[in-house]
Every structure is written in structure tokens, then in C-alpha cells.
Design brief:
The structure holds two protein chains of two kinds. Chain A is of the alpha/beta class. Chain A has 14 helices and 14 strands. In chain A, strand 9, helix 6 and strand 10 form a beta-alpha-beta unit. The chains are: A alpha/beta, B mainly alpha.
């Protein structure tokens, strides 16, 4: 069987290679499964648990899209990708969408021909210091030794930050997060810098997390979000508005607990449009009326997803910070459902 | 001798004195220690220093090992149990054991299938590795790839059966024509097998049952140490024959074959394995439509096999070059044709010389299978670096997990090297 598949594939490879780009929605529906690219494992964002079930903040976005499109949050084929394979997997059509804590940058959006559909986590580079160092601001770090991953944007951000504040530092180059943790704990450097969410997750693994703190300064912008291929705007719209539905649901007070009740008894017209009891938003997307309701029902709203996976009650313990709703002083601001 | 002497002498010992034990300082552990540990003052000093280092290492690691926690739900729980004392958190191994061995997606109700395949593997390998065993066992070896494929991947049983039919038909064609010419037999056999596979490819959809006896498991769901074993066994067993063919091809007097082999070997040897793996996983995806790609496992097997075949070819070329020219001439003068000369005279000697080198490549290849973790396949290292260390429960458990990976690899690699030493002794026909 494999042989004939190979031959068949070889003959029609040239003919259909380009056709993958169009009509992703039809492909997904015909397949009955959403192929979603995730990381091979990042604490809190995506990792399979002891039963092999994928859990995490990015995973919830995949499941929400599957619930909206296919009506089944478990109809997702998670395709683990590394930092090196993620973009080719998306470009070649192996996956329908990528939700892999990927920073939205100009060149990825324009040059690599992807569409970032939004931001599900505003990250930024932070500093982890032992409390015994007696530092309360990154600007006090003059002359400090800094553990930093080589060849990353964090290295450049660090240089920029220290130069802008006219203070000096001594870099201790490291290769991986594991190495950085060991060096930092061994006291080889005064402070360890990488993405703040990563620092929080790292700190959670320490024997005495209370002895260490994250400094308030965030020195770079790392908007992380799901992305799709260029050229299939209908599919991009579905992913974008599923994410927006989760954010709007939190803003409007719709949660997985009360969504069924809200759908029948709400007086708020925007909630009614969101949950499909009014208007034809689902139809415009090429879905049924209850697409957003299913996504919220199965995954919860943005705030619930945040709280279960990376929020303050989890070992990772991230505060909402920039990722609060705009009404609470954060950056989350979904366009209206109208 | 006369009896009279016995009466004239006052005392004659009639039995030998029983052997008395050697003095304490000239035998036993004391002598051994004096000879080996404290022969000279410098020697004694080194011994004491070495003992001290051993003590330092053991005093640091033994409490950690012996005080290990085997039952806990997370790293935090481990630390709670240890109460600040030094101790390993082996609980991660017990909790994630199935994941370390089978990967995180292999259905847990089907774990018995790879286990059975693993046990069968020993039966199948035995007649190849130990040639004193009855030759009839080779039938098991021949059937093993198909049975193992069916067990591990599941699905309809007709796939391995049709594959087997193709191989048998190919062999029959080969056996029918090989007497006339080796080339006709060889390529005719391959062509016949291809035809059978092509035809059965059309029959297959009609005989595939809705609910196969063994649920199908896609390659993407394979993982853990099982994946390392599968890649290692498949690639070693494929690359040895391919390597022999390449080594012979490189010595061929036919320029076309010679240059194809030379270019293949030199190209593959000049490229890092990880590059080939990236090509297999990333680049090939561009050339196929999304729905019809060659299975990722197969792509990786092809790449690793090509890689190690090129190395094995060079090892065997060394063996061929080490044979005196007289052996080739002797074979020619006996009137043997090329394939007979190779099969009966040259290769048995050349391969014997090459054993250490081939084993070296095999051990290296087996360890190189962990490289597939960089193309997001979840072999044992991929499982550790990805899902297990990224879970909120076990983030931060490095030593225990990587020590475990070291241990399982050591067992297999040490076994291979012991086997090869036995083989060398067994095949030693010269008088040294």
C-alpha cells in the first residue's frame, strides 16, 4: 500500500502542491480534524499530560477553533513543531494553523507570508533576581553579570536597554533554558533574563521560589499569537474571530459556566450576536450560529483559559498584567461583534 | 629399587608432605594489593588519592541515589517528602514510564503489541547472530519484519501479507533466473516484486475491513525508547547489506556503477546527519501534496540508512583492501565467477576483518537515533526535553531523566560491543 501511495504521490505532487493554500475550511471539514501546530513542550502553554492529552494556553486556542468549526473540541490533531520546523510545517500545508507562542514580527508577517490573526499573550523580556541581591528595579543592575541565551533577540534587547540607560553589564552566555537555570542557581550570574512568562515558569521549578523575584521592567515587546497562511482569508477570519470571541466573552462576562443560560436569557444585544441567538455572524464566517458558543462552552473565556493554565493559582503564577482586558488597564481589546 | 633399603634407614617418609598454604604476603588479596595497589611509594600515593576521589564521588551521589523518591505526583511533592534532604526524584520515571518507553500517543491498551514485537525480535535475531543455531530458525527471521510491522502499526493484516507475497514472488523470479545471470535474476526479482505490490495496491481497499483486528496506529503516534529501538534495528539491518553493495560497487570495474557509488558515499559522508534529517522532515514536505506524503518514519529510516550505509561501505572497503591480492587471484584461478568469488572467498574474510568497524558504526547509529528529537519526533530524548520537562509537574527534573536515558542506551550499546567481541573470538581461525 505504501508503495502505491508513493507512486501516486510522485505523479500528482507537481500538480497539486499549490492547491493546498485555498479553502482550508473545506479541507478541515472534509478531514473532520483540525491540524494544529504547537510547541514540542512549553510549561503552561502546550504540553501533553501523563495521559498523553495536550493541555495549555496555546492548546486551548486550537481546541476553541476546532469546537467552532467542527463542533468537537477534541477533533484536533496536534502537530508538535520545533522552533526550526514550525514555519515550514505551516507553509507546506501540513498544519492548518500554528499556535506556538510565536512572536508577531514584521518579517514573519510580510516576508514569510503568514497572517497573524491576533495576540493571545503579550510577553516581554524580563529579569529574574534573587531577593538577597536587594535590587528593586532593572536600572539598579549597573555592573551586574547577566545570564543570557546567545543568538536570540533577547541578547540584542538587553544591549539596547543597558545602553539606553547608560549602565554597564557583563554577559554570561548560555545555550538553553536548562543551562541558564543551573547557572543562575549556582550564582554564576546576578540576574537571568528571557521572556517574562518563561522566567515565571522557571522560577516555579525552584526549590524556594519565594527567594527570587521578577523585576518590574519589561524591556521588549513580544506579542505572541496564532497564525495562518497567507492567501486564505476566510480561514484567517475564522481563527481571528474565534480568538476575539474568547476575549469578548470575558469582557461581556460570558463564561463556560453561564454561557448556556446567557444564550437564552440575555438582554445584551452583543452577547446575543456573539452566542448566535441574534444576527447571522456565524453564517458570514461559513459556520453555524453557535460556533462561538461552543468555543466558550468547551474552553471557557479568555480569563478562564488564562487562569487554568498560567494564572496566579497555577504553579507558574503569572499575573494578568498587560494581558488584562482594556477595561482593567490591559491591552486586550477585541473589535466589536457587530 | 630393592626392599632392603627400607630396613637400613631409620625413617622414610612414605607419603608426600601436604601442600601448605603460601605465606600470607605471597598470595591472596594481600599479595594482589601489594603487587597492584602499593607496589611503589608513588603507586601507593596514587591509590590513596584515587580512593579518596572515589569516596568523594560516592559520598555525593550515593545518598542522592539511595534516598530517591519513587512515589510522588510532582516535583513539588518530591521536595515535600524529602524535606530538604538530598535525594533524587525518581517518581518522574514511575509516573511517566509508559511515555518514556512508548511515547505519549501510543494507545495504552495496545502496549502489549510492541512488547510482543520486542520479544519476537530476540527470536528473530538469534539465528543471524549465533550461526550455531539450527538454520530453520531463519524462517522466523524472514517473517519477523512483517509480523513486527503488523503488531506495531496495526491496521489490516493484508498490508504485511501482500508485502510478503511481493517479496516471495521476487525471490522466486530471482531463483529462476540467477543461474543464467545474476543481474537478470536480481533486477527481475525487484521488478516482479514491484509489479505484485502495484497490483495488490488496487486490491487492498476492497479487502480492508472496517474494524481491523489490531487498531491502526499512525507513525506520528510512535515514540519513546520504542522509537529508538525501531529506528536502530531497522537502520542497522538495512544499512549492512546496502553498505556491502556500495563497497563492492566502489571497487567495480564498470565506470558507471563505480562513480555512482563513489559520489553517493562521498556526498553522504560529507553531509551532517542532522541536515539529512531536516531534509527528510521539512524539505520533502514541500514536494508532496499535504494529504499524500511518504510516512515520516519511512523518510527518517531512509535518511539514517543512507548515512550509515556510506560509513559501513568505507569500513568494508578497508576490509577488502586488507586482503592480499592472492586471494582474488586464487578465486579467479578456481574458475569462480564474480558473485561466487565474492560470496565464497572474498567477503567472508573481508567482513571478518571489518567486524569492529561495523560494530562501531552500528553503536554510533543507534545513539544517533536520538537526533530525531530535533525534527519533533518524540523519541526518548524528545519525550524528556519536550512533554515531560514542559509539564508543570516535572519542570526542573533534569538529572534523573537523562540518567535514565543514559542507562537504557548503555545497556544496548554494551550488549552490542560484547557480542562483537564474542564474534571475533568465535571467528578467529588464525593462529596467534
Amino acid at each position: 500500500m505504501n508503495k502505491s501511495v508513493i507512486f501516486g504521490a510522485l505523479t500528482i505532487a507537481g500538480l497539486t502542491a499549490g492547491a493546498a493554500a485555498a479553502a482550508t475550511l473545506d479541507d478541515v471539514k472534509a478531514r473532520g480534524k483540525l491540524n494544529c501546530g504547537v510547541t514540542t513542550g512549553l510549561v503552561g502553554f502546550a504540553a501533553p499530560d501523563a495521559n498523553g492529552e495536550w493541555k495549555g494556553f496555546d492548546v486551548a486556542v486550537c481546541r476553541a477553533v476546532a469546537a467552532a468549526v467542527l463542533g468537537d473540541a477534541t477533533a484536533v490533531e496536534f502537530v508538535p513543531t520545533t522552533g526550526k520546523t514550525r514555519f515550514t510545517a505551516l507553509a507546506s500545508g501540513e498544519i492548518d494553523m500554528l499556535a506556538r507562542n510565536t512572536t508577531w514580527t514584521f518579517s514573519r508577517d510580510v516576508d514569510l507570508k503568514f497572517d497573524f490573526v491576533g495576540v493571545n499573550y503579550y510577553d516581554g523580556q524580563g529579569f529574574l533576581v534573587p531577593k538577597s541581591l536587594g535590587v528593586s528595579s532593572a536600572k539598579d543592575l549597573d555592573g551586574a553579570t547577566v545570564c543570557i541565551q546567545t543568538g536570540t533577540t533577547t541578547e540584542l534587547n538587553l544591549a539596547d536597554f543597558f545602553r539606553a540607560n547608560n549602565i554597564s553589564y557583563e554577559p554570561v552566555p548560555i545555550e538553553t533554558n536548562a543551562e541558564g537555570t543551573q547557572q543562575y542557581l549556582a550564582g554564576a550570574c546576578d540576574t537571568y533574563t528571557t521572556d517574562a512568562s518563561g522566567l515565571a515558569a522557571t522560577r516555579a521549578t525552584f526549590e524556594n521560589p519565594g527567594d527570587h523575584m521578577l523585576l518590574p521592567e519589561i524591556v521588549s515587546k513580544e506579542p505572541l499569537g496564532p497564525l495562518v497562511r497567507h492567501g486564505d482569508n476566510e480561514w484567517g477570519d475564522i481563527v481571528r474571530w474565534t480568538l476575539n470571541a474568547l476575549i469578548t466573552a470575558e469582557e461581556l462576562g460570558v463564561s463556560s459556566a453561564n454561557v448556556a443560560e446567557m444564550a437564552t436569557s440575555t438582554n445584551n444585544p452583543e452577547v446575543a450576536r456573539l452566542l448566535g441567538t441574534e444576527g447571522t455572524l456565524g453564517e458570514m464566517l461559513g459556520l453555524d450560529a453557535e460556533w462561538a458558543k461552543r468555543a466558550i462552552e468547551t474552553q471557557g473565556n479568555y480569563g478562564e483559559i488564562f487562569a487554568t493554565n498560567i494564572g496566579e493559582d497555577t504553579p507558574i503564577g503569572l499575573a494578568r498584567g498587560l494581558n488584562a482586558q482594556w477595561t482593567d488597564g490591559g491591552l486586550l481589546y477585541s473589535p466589536p461583534f457587530r | 629399587m630393592s626392599d632392603s633399603q627400607g630396613h637400613s634407614v631409620a625413617f622414610v617418609r612414605t607419603e608426600t608432605i601436604p601442600q601448605s598454604a603460601a605465606p600470607l604476603t605471597a598470595a591472596g588479596p594481600v599479595k594482589w594489593m601489594r603487587d597492584n595497589l602499593f607496589a611503589t611509594p608513588a603507586n601507593s600515593l596514587l591509590t590513596v588519592a584515587a580512593l579518596y576521589v572515589v569516596y568523594l564521588i560516592l559520598s555525593a551521589t550515593l545518598p542522592w541515589l539511595l534516598n530517591g523518591v519513587w512515589n510522588a505526583g510532582s516535583l513539588a511533592e518530591c521536595r515535600e517528602i524529602l524535606q530538604g534532604t538530598s535525594g533524587a526524584c525518581f517518581a518522574v520515571l514511575t509516573e511517566r514510564w509508559p511515555q518514556l518507553i512508548f511515547g505519549f500517543k501510543y494507545p495504552s491498551t495496545e502496549y502489549w503489541r510492541p512488547v510482543v514485537a520486542f520479544l519476537l525480535m530476540f527470536v528473530a535475531m538469534a539465528p543471524v547472530l549465533f550461526f550455531d543455531l539450527p538454520r530453520k530458525l531463519l524462517i522466523v527471521t524472514g517473517l519477523f519484519p512483517f509480523v513486527a510491522f503488523w503488531l506495531i502499526w496495526g491496521g489490516t493484516i493484508w498490508v504485511p501479507i501482500f508485502a510478503l507475497v511481493g517479496v516471495i514472488v521476487g525471490y522466486l523470479v530471482y531463483a529462476r533466473f540467477v543461474a543464467k545471470s545474476f543481474a537478470i535474476g536480481f533486477f527481475g526479482g525487484i521488478a516482479a516484486a514491484m509489479v505484485v505490490w502495484y497490483i495488490t495496491g488496487f486490491i487492498l481497499p476492497y479487502v480492508t475491513p472496517e474494524e481491523p483486528f489490531l487498531t491502526a496506529v499512525p507513525s506520528r503516534d510512535l515514540g519513546g525508547y520504542m522509537l529508538n529501538m525501531m529506528l536502530g534495528v531497522t537502520c542497522v539491518s538495512l544499512s549492512v547489506p546496502l553498505g556491502i553493495a556500495l563497497a563492492l560497487g566502489r571497487q567495480s570495474s564498470m565506470p558507471l556503477i563505480k562513480w555512482i557509488c563513489v559520489i553517493f558515499i562521498e556526498f553522504i559522508r560529507g553531509v551532517p546527519l542532522i541536515t539529512l534529517l531536516f531534509v527528510a522532515s521539512v524539505m520533502l514536505a514541500y514536494f508532496f501534496p499535504p494529504d499524500q506524503t511518504v510516512d515520516l518514519f519511512l523518510r527518517v529510516v531512509i535518511m539514517i540508512t543512507m548515512f550509515s550505509a556510506a560509513y559501513i561501505a568505507e569500513v568494508i572497503r578497508g576490509g577488502l583492501a586488507a586482503l592480499p591480492k592472492g586471494q582474488y587471484e586464487a578465486a579467479d584461478s578456481l574458475g569462480l565467477d564474480y558473485s561466487q568469488a565474492m560470496r565464497l572467498i572474498i567477503l567472508p574474510q573481508a567482513l571478518k576483518i571489518s567486524i569492529p568497524g561495523i560494530v562501531n558504526v552500528a553503536v554510533g547509529l543507534f545513539k544517533d537515533t536520538t537526533l530525531v528529537s530535533v525534527i519533533s519526533m518524540f523519541d526518548i530524548v524528545g519525550m524528556i526535553r519536550g512533554p515531560i520537562l514542559a509539564s508543570t509537574d516535572w519542570n526542573g527534573v533534569y538529572w534523573e531523566l537523562f540518567l535514565f536515558a543514559c542507562a537504557v542506551f548503555f545497556v544496548v550499546c554494551y550488549g552490542i560491543s560484547q557480542y562483537s567481541q564474542w564474534l571475533e573470538r568465535r571467528l578467529a581461525t588464525d593462529h596467534r
